[in-house]
Amino acid sequence: MSRTLGGVTNRPATVPIPTVRRAAGLFAGLALGLAVLAGCSSQGASTDCGLDACTVTFERGVDASATILGVEAKLVGAEGDQVTVEVAGEQLTLTTGQQAAEAGGFAVTLDSVTDQQVKIRVARNPGS
Question: For the whole model, what pTM was predicted?
Answer without folding.
Answer: 0.67
